[in-house]
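In the previous chapter we treated chains in isolation. Here, by contrast, the input contains two separate entities that must be folded as one system, with a combined length of 844 residues.
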Amino acid sequence: MYNGLEGFLQPFLSLGLIGWIAGGTLVGLYVGAIPGLSVTMAVSLLISFTFSWDVLPSLAVMVGIYTGGVYGGARSGILLNIPGAPAAVASTFDGYPLAKMGMAGQAMGLSTTQAVIGNFLGIIVLALFAPLISQLALVFQARDYFLLAFMGLFLVGSLAEGSMLKALVTAFLGIVVGLIGMDPETGQGRMTFDSMNLLGGIHFVVIMIGTFGISEALVQLQTKAVPVKQKIDRITPEWDQVGKNMWLTLRASTIGVIIGALPGTGGDIAALMAYDHAKRTVKDPYPQPFGHGAYQGLVAPEAAANAAIGGAFVPMMTLGIPGDSVTAVLIGALIIHGLRPGPMLMREQPEFFWFVVGSLFIANIFLYIWGMTGIRAFSKIVELPKSMLIPIIVVLTFVGGYSIQNSITDIYWMIGIGILGYFMKRYDYPVAPLVLGVILTPIIDSNFRRGVQMTHGSATDFFLGMVTNPVPAVILALMVVTAVVSNPKAMGAIRGLFGKKEEA
Amino acid sequence: MSIVKWSKKLVLAAGLVAAGVAGAADYPDHPINGVIAWGAGGGTDTVTRLMTPIAEKVLGKSVILANKTGATGAIATQSVYSGKTDGYTVLFHAENPQLYQVLGLSPLSYDEFEPVMLFVQGSTVIVVPKDSPLKTYDDLIKAAKANQGKMSIGISGVGGQPWVTSTLLKKVEGVNFNPVAFDGDGPLVTALLGKQLDVSGLAVGAAVQYIKNGDLRALAIMKSSPNESIPEVPHITKLNPAFTDAMKASGFFYGVFVKKGTPQPIIDKLAGAYKMALNDTKFKDYAKMNGLSVMGLTGKEARTFINDWRSQISWLIYEAGAGKNSPEKFGIPKPGAAKK
C-alpha cells in the first residue's frame, strides 16, 4: 500500500503539472456551474484533446476538472436556485434562501470551506483506507443497494415544506417518470407509447434542469421582487460557524465517502442523504430554519458531495471499477494512454496511485483559491436586473439541456417539465421530490429484480436475506433509528418508557 | 412521354450525378459530425476517440464527436438514419443494431447503412471467482449438470455477450443456469470479485487484468482461436468442437457506418482515413491490451460478417424465447443457410 509513496510528491515537483491541475480546477469550476455542462462531458472531450500528451499532464488536468466541477455545481445552485449538477441539488435548499437574504457571499464562502474540508477528508480516506473501503464495495449486493435507495426515499419527508401529501404526489410523479424507457432486463419499452424518443427514458439531468431552471425563470418573470443587494463586504465564512458545525461536516463527509465509493451510487445521492441527515439531527439550525437559509443545510451536502470524489477513486484505483460516471470516463482516458487502473496497476506501478492522491491534494488547494477569489464577481450575478438575468438563465438551461445527449427532444422535455415545475411552485408543490424519485427509481427497480434473481426468483428469500446478513441489517437498523429519532411522538413514547418526563 | 421531356430528365439526372461526384471529390470540405452511440468511457467511445484524431489528419477536416446514448444505441442509429447521405454525419456503433428488429427495439438495422469499416472484434471469456471449486471448463459443465438451473451466471441484458455465452452453453451442452442481470462488464466484475456470482462471461479486455492478477479464473474463450492477451486460456472449439458453427461470427465488434445511399467515393475516403488510424502503433497497443482483434473489414467483407453475425445471434435469441419478433419476419436467414 505504501509502495511508490514518492509518486505523491511528483505533481508538487513540476510547475507544469501544478499549472495543469490549477487550470483544470478553474475550468471545472465554470463547467460545473453551468447546468447540464457536466464534468463527464468535459473529461470525455479532453480525451481527444490530450490524445497526444503524456499521461501525467492529461490525468492532472482531468483530476482538476473533476474537483472543480463537483464544487462548481453549487455556485449556480446558491445564486440562481439552479443546480449546476445533480450533486448540487441539495445545496439549493438552503443556499438559495441565503442568497435571497443578501448572504450569497457567505453562502459561497461556506460552501467553499465545506467543499475543501470534505474533499480533503475524502482524499485522506482514499490514501489511508482504500483497500478497506474497496472491500465494502464488493460486499454490497443488489439487496443492499435496494435498501439504500429505499432509505433515500425517506428524504421526501425532509423535503416536504408544509403538506406531506403534496411532497408524496410529486415524489410519486418522479417515480413514474423514472420508470419510463427500456426495461433494464428484457429491453422492452415501458410507458414509451412506441416512441423511439421515449425508449431511452427521460434523462434525469433534463428533468433537473427543467424543474429547477426553466421553472425558476418563469417564477422570476412573475414576481416583482427587486434583486437583493448582496453584502459582499464579508466573503470568508464565519469561522466560528465552521468550527461549530465540524462534527456535522465529519458525519456528512463520511456519508459522502462511503456512498461515493459504492460503484452503484454517487455524489448526488450522497449529498441528498447528507442533507436529510442534517435536517434530522441538527436541532438548532442557524441563522434560519432548514429550507429558509440554514448554514447546516449547506454544510452537509457540500461536504458530502465533495468527499464523494475521494470515495469514487477508491474502487477505480484498487479494483479498476468506476465509482461514478466521471471515474468511468477517467478509466477510458487512462486506457487510451496505455494504463488500466486496477489491482495490476496498484501492484506494478503503485506510484501512480500516489500521483492521483497528490494531484487531488493540489486540486483541493486551488479549489480554495479559485473558490474564494471568484465570490465577489459571482455575487454580482444575483444583483443583475431581471431583464438580463432571466435570458441568461434560459440560454444556459437550453445549452445545458441540449448538450446532455445532443438531443433536441430533451429540450422539449425540459420546457414541458419546466412549465409543470412552474405550476408546482405556484401551488406549493415541492419540486425536489420529483428529481429524487427520478434519481432513485432506476436503482430501486433494477436492484430489486437483480436481488430476486439472485435468490432464484424467491421474493421471500430476498426479504429474509435483509435480516440474516450484516450489511442490509445495518442499513435496516439505520432506517428504523432515523425514522424513530426524527419523529417527536415516537421519541416522546420512548422517553416515557424509560420513565423520564418530557419538559413541557 | 416526349423526347424533349426525356432529355430534360436525363440532363437533370446527369447534373445530379455530376453534383454528387463533385461533392465526393472535395469531400470533406467542412467538419464531419460523428455520432457515438454509446456513452463516454465505454468501448465504442474509447475506440472512436482513439482513432479519430489520426483519421482527422488524413481527412484534413475535423470530426466533431458527440455521444448520443440511450436504448442500446437505437436513438443514435435513428438520428443518423434521419440525416443526409452526404457523408457529413457518420455513426460509430457496435453490433447492437443487428438485433434491434428481433428484440423489437427499432425497425432499423445495418441494412439501412453502409459499413465504412469494422474496426475490431472482441471476444468473451468465461470466468469464475478465484477460490471457486471449478478449475476447468469440464468442472463447470459437470457442476452445472449436477445443479441444473441452480448456479448463478451473470448477464448484461438479452443479446449481450454474457447472455449469448449462457445461451450457447445451454444449446450446445444442455446446461441451465440461473441468469442474473447486471449493467455491463464493470458491475459483472464487481459481482464476481464479491463472489455474488458463480460464473459469468466477460469481454476479454474487461477481464484480463483480474485473470493475470489471480482475482478471477478463466475457463474458456468463446472463440475459434486463442486470444493473444491470454494465450494460456483454451478456446471453446478446442474444448468442444460442437461450438464450431456458433463461433463463425462470434463476439462483438465496433465500427463506423454511414446511411445507405452515400456515394462510394465518400465511403472510400472515410475508410482510407480510418485505415491509417487502425495501423497506428498506439491503437494497436490499445487493441492488444484490451484483447481486441483488429478487423479493418470494409465493403462486401464487412457486410458478410455483420449479416452472418445477425443470423447467428438473432436465431439464438428467438429460439431461446427471448426475442419479441421472429427473425423470419425480417428475412434473416438461419445460420448456415445464408451462404449459397
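The two ends of chain A are 56 Å apart (CA to CA). DSSP finds 25 helices and two strands in chain A. Compare these points with the single-chain example from earlier in the chapter.
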